[in-house]
């Protein structure tokens, strides 16, 4: 019974390396329709067939039921070319934040925890905008002391608005 899913996964592995190429949304849609959709439809047929043959309370029965209940979410990957095949980028980007969140439990004060959260937010925003955090902080430390005391508008200092010249000698 497990031979069919193993064969399907082998089909998937054979074409997955082409996903690493940067494709236009239309080309990505075409590739998914051509390669992924047949594999997913074969997998769905196997799920439907296997769901009648396994005990619903068994681990495989629960896994099959879960896949069938979530099928509309899984098939969206083929229908929308803007969706990624996985969420690895998001997982990678929030990992430092979740580590920091655990560290904030040990902050001595609420203000210290808030300062840590702000620092993490700035670092992650720089990372999301492909800005070298070190040079961004250098820019802030040079710019902020010369700003007017009453100036509360910092939009020009946001990472996506700053042009760094890297000459901070």
General description of the model:
The chain is mainly α. It is built from 8 helices and no strands. It has helices at residues 3-15, 25-51, 59-69, 71-74, 76-79, 88-104, 110-128, 133-143. Helix 1 (3-15) runs antiparallel to helix 2, helix 2 packs across helix 3 and helix 6 (88-104) runs antiparallel to helix 7 (110-128). The longest helix is centred in the first third of the chain and has 27 residues, at 25-51. It is elongated, with a radius of gyration of 24 Å. The chain starts with a helix and ends in a 26-residue tail after the last helix. 2% of the residues are buried. The model has no long low-confidence stretch (mean pLDDT 82).
Task: Give the total of beta strands.
Answer: 0
Unreliable parts: none
The percent range for helix content is 55-70%
Task: Tell me the structural class.
Answer: mainly alpha
Query: So how many helices?
Result: 8
Radius of gyration: 24 Å
Portion in beta strands = under 5%
Order of helices and strands: HHHHHHHH
Mind describing the biggest β-sheet? none
**Average pLDDT number:** 82
Based on CA inertia axes, which overall geometry fits? Answer: elongated
- The end-to-end span amounts to 68 Å
Key traits:
single chain; mainly alpha; elongated
Topology:
Blueprint: H1 3-15, H2 25-51, H3 59-69, H4 71-74, H5 76-79, H6 88-104, H7 110-128, H8 133-143
Helix pairs in contact: 1-2, 2-3, 6-7
Short description:
The protein is built from eight helices and no strands. It has 169 residues and is mainly alpha-helical.
